[in-house]
Design goal:
mainly alpha, ADP-ribosylglycohydrolase fold, 17 helices, 0% strand
């Protein structure tokens, strides 16, 4: 498989795998996790009650926004902000009581696994049901939860020089997250994540620590003048890198110290888990979900980062064989690579997905 394709597919599959693993223990204390799963905590999916690993809103948001951004390319429009709003509105409709989508533009809206209601950010959904949303300069609330953090994954994967400048990656991510999360830390964390994902898939030769450092510096340089909290966030994330590379705390102690309960804590926890096990997806996921915090969010972000870094082939098969949405995410990853009109890759299958809004055969 082409290395670039493997990174894109690995990013979305890793996102879903970490999300599904973390969902089992989401918002439980480390002590509660150990009581249920033993002294080493959760070591893989818990499939006792379900046949498939269950994804949550963290994967769904990245999927809807990836779908929406691909729509923007298919329709020859450069107004990406308009399309991310469309994607978020369709996600919101999917979180209402079940009914078949009436006139959905996103083909993922027709897939049951992207309509389930898990780990929902109620404040986010409340904003998305209104006529007017927020912006970085005019927030609608002070929400600093990680509910929209994975928007940064979709925008980071969407980046290439034919579509966006690097600065536009940061701006589009901040605008997208600030629609519903008005606390600057929330949308600036998503900016760091978007820059990290874009860097990993576009320049895989750089070490993971260097990718994080570049992403943090890019966020700080772009937004510090408007949002002074950017400097403090950059300092905190650099401290996380130092903590991950020190031997002063075990993996469990480090995760507890980071308190992964808001956007900044979730991003810090994901960075820590990835740097502690940069070449071992399984070990990184175990670190990412075994803590007293938002395990699904940390697992999702860490899974996306390492999935992009290591590629699909490096994800253990036992993470993928029970992942219900795997085929749909592989298709979204492939389409993110191919979505450039000048390459002449648009055909009837593409039209079926991004003009008619219908899922590929065999996905539902």
């Amino acid at each position: 498989m082409d290395g670039n394709m493997s990174a894109y597919r690995g990013c979305l599959l890793g996102l879903a795998a970490g999300d599904a693993m973390g969902y089992t223990v989401d918002n439980k204390t480390l002590e509660e996790i150990r009581e249920n799963y033993g002294p080493d905590g959760l070591l893989g999916y818990d499939l006792q009650e379900t046949e498939f690993a269950t994804i949550t809103s963290y994967t769904q948001i990245a999927a809807y926004l990836s779908n929406a951004l691909l729509l923007s390319v298919s329709r020859g429009k450069g107004d990406y902000s308009r399309y991310v709003k469309l994607g978020l509105r369709e996600f919101t409709r999917s979180q209402q009581f079940y009914r078949d989508p009436e006139a959905s533009y996103c083909w993922v809206a027709k897939c049951p696994q992207f309509r389930r209601r898990h780990c929902r950010d109620a404040r986010m959904l409340d904003i998305l049901r209104l006529e007017f949303y927020g912006s970085p300069e005019n927030p609608r609330n002070d929400n600093n939860a990680p509910g929209a953090l994975t928007a940064g994954i979709a925008v980071g994967l969407f980046y290439n020089s034919r579509r966006l400048t690097p600065e536009q990656v940061g701006s589009l991510t901040a605008q997208t997250v600030a629609l519903t999360h008005g606390n600057p830390e929330a949308f600036l964390c998503a900016v760091v994540l978007a820059y990290a994902i874009a860097g990993i898939v576009q320049e895989p030769e750089y070490a993971l620590r260097a990718q994080f450092e570049q992403a943090i510096a890019a966020m700080d340089g772009q937004f510090r003048a408007r949002f002074p909290v950017a400097e403090e966030l950059a300092r905190q994330l650099r401290g996380t890198i130092a903590l991950a590379e020190s031997d002063t705390a075990s993996a469990e102690e480090g995760m507890e110290q980071l308190r992964c309960m808001d956007a900044a804590g979730v991003l810090a926890g994901a960075i820590f888990a990835c740097l502690r096990s940069p070449d071992d997806f399984d070990r990184a996921m175990i670190t990412a979900v075994n803590h007293s915090g938002l395990s699904a969010a940390v697992g999702a972000v860490a899974g996306a980062i390492l999935g992009a870094r290591l590629g699909e082939e490096a994800l253990p098969e036992f993470y993928l064989e029970s992942l219900e949405c795997a085929s749909a995410l592989r298709i979204l990853g492939e389409d993110m690579v191919c979505a450039t009109p000048t390459l002449g890759l648009f055909d009837d299958a593409w039209d079926h997905k991004y003009v008619q809004g219908m899922p590929p055969e065999g996905v539902i």
